[in-house]
Specification:
504 residues; alpha/beta; 6-stranded mixed sheet; 17 helices; globular
Amino acid sequence: MKGVYRAPQAQWLGRGRGLTAKSNRQRRFQSLVVRDERPFRMAVLGSGPAGFYSVYKVMQGINNAIVDMYEQLPVPFGLVRYGVAPDHPEVKDKFTEVASSPNFNFIGNIRIGQDIMLDDLTQHYDAILFAYGASKDRKLGISGEDTLRGIYAARDFVGWYNGLPEFSDLNPRLDESDTAVIIGQGNVALDVARTLLKGVDALRHTDISEQALALLSKSRIKRVHVMGRRGPMQFACTIKEVRELMKLPSVAFEAVKRDLLPPDLSSLPRTAKRLTKLLLEGSPTPIADARKSWSFDFLLSPLHFMPDRDGESAQLDAVSFSRMQFVNAVDRFDPAAKVQRAVGERPLSIPTSLAFRSIGYQSEPLPGMSELGIAFDEHRSIITNDDHGRLVTRAGEASDANTIPGMYCAGWVKRGPTGVIANTMEDSFVTAAAIVADWNNKATFLGGGDGWGSIKGGVAEKGTRIVSWDDWLKIEAAEKARGNLLGKEREKFTSPQDMLKILD
């Protein structure tokens, strides 16, 4: 960003889709806010790490800032509760600190586009922060993916064992095969592998749902393949995730072919060197002594899912892979090395009735975005922004012509579904800094208002049960009581209806 953006509104107005010279939206964006007479008010859409980290910094940087955080579920925390980091209680402690502020309001069980229209929010806040993450998984686009039983999205599986209501009925068939194939080699793929390979007794004291424990206890899985299109110097998982898998008791790691790793590790960057050494050392459990085993399978691209051979069943029977090779063999240790299909090589078929795709998540636009001139990049699955979190009507550097006043984004919906929670924290702090700088430098924002105080009456008239932070604490207390009976931290409710019953 070159300096601080201060939008002359006449230039921006009318450039977005659906905006006309006489529209109410145009008039809304036209008035500069008088900041000395009332506090800054911001609506945050999403209650995961991106939302909380952004709020933390905004409330530090703007005196008396008031924040209303909207969440479609009755409970907060997003991925920290349901996704990639159920074992990071210190993250939730920081979020609880934010929520303890009298200027913070949690508004749960609210669906944007149904209970509240996005256009309505613009009338009652100075700023709106989109931090709602990624709600879909990427598909492979190969035959059998949508027609055969036994194929699951890793996102759905992780959500299922973490008690996400959306996937409470997933019930994966873990008792029909001794082999599982995971397509993808990122951290979520390794979360799936670890859950399949880890002994159930080691999971009983975690907050994994009892429903998941019951099915995992019946699992027949003994062998897990973690598949990737490229080589070990290109995959995206972190050292911590690989190390945890290597240390699983009675689980062996099948060695990586030595020619896929650099002969001299001394010149590698620190992270790559540590990861390569970890792969070379492998697991302490020898294959001959292991109850279960796993491997990274490289240079294999999924070709199609194969049905049962008798043709009478819609059950997955095997996964076929094309063999890949590096475009330039000299570059095979380069993190950016490209691959292509190997000429003359026969496909590899792995027999299994259980497969997971784990090639990334996707964000989706919210209802009402296009009417406000908010551009969504379908290819990258992000809201179009200036990399500092300011929404823009077209990609590129923020300018007077294309920055949308008072609109910001953070987290996966800003940069794409990549990285770990620490990356989301850093990214959120960047967005928060932009919000604080714009406010303190008197840039143009939305028209302001009384926030949730002006909206809640209309929501209540629709019969929506609104969940406050105090309500969430009651739900949490009930979950902990349920968990205490089972000797674990908590037993989550897996349906919104059961959560809301606690509040009756």
